[in-house]
Specification:
Elements lengths: L2 E6 L3 H12 L4 E7 L2 H10 L4 E4 L8 H7 L5 E6 L5 H6 L4 E4 L4 H24 L1 H4 L3 E6 L2 E6 L3 E7 L2 E6 L6 E4 L2 H6 L6 E5 L2 E4 L5 E3 L2 E4 L2 E4 L2 H4 L3
Length: about 230
Amino acid sequence: MKLSVIAIDDEPLALQLVEGYIRKTPFLELKGCFDNPLSAIEFLDDNPVQLIYLDIQMPDLMGTEFARTLQAKAKIIFTTAYEKYALEGFRLEAIDYLLKPFAYEEFLVASHKARKLIELEQKSANKNKIEANTEFLFIKSDYKIRRINFDDILYIEGLKDYVKVVVENDPKPILSISSMKAVEAKLPESKFMRVHRSFIVNLERIQTIERSRIIFGSTYIPVSDQYKDKF
């Protein structure tokens, strides 16, 4: 299995090094190199890839900011000279964090890790096609695994390392240690939509929209500019 990849780095020598590493790795297929993350965003709109080698300290748009705004489901390997962003990289669910200058061996280990994870996810997706078409999901909360019907969910809110699932006729929201990305992957796109970095809504449960805000009772959910057109 070959992974489609791109590299983003504003330093020409660093970008050239990563490009060379990619080209000598048999299971990687280079789709493009970019010295500006804004150019990469435009490219990814029409050319989705599976893996991105991403610098962090860049002008115009930081690599961490780019990763947060990325709508594609590409995996990230950060390539940076700064250790201080490691925790944020972890929170952004990066596959690995390579500190410059890094050798080809380190690059290869990180790339193998990405390949194994992507292959595992693809196998899991194929096995769970039937489950993906069901009307519920399972979510871990309070040391238990709860079954939640899609139709009962009003909206889901991201809270740092947690997600909050708000369910109709349930006095307390369901809290789970998870990421918005992980939960979103389990939801059917025909029913649910991301309308903000921190919010996913059940489209079938929307009753009122006012000034780019979705109203659920006393809760006002903003529709950010990033998702407004799609919504």
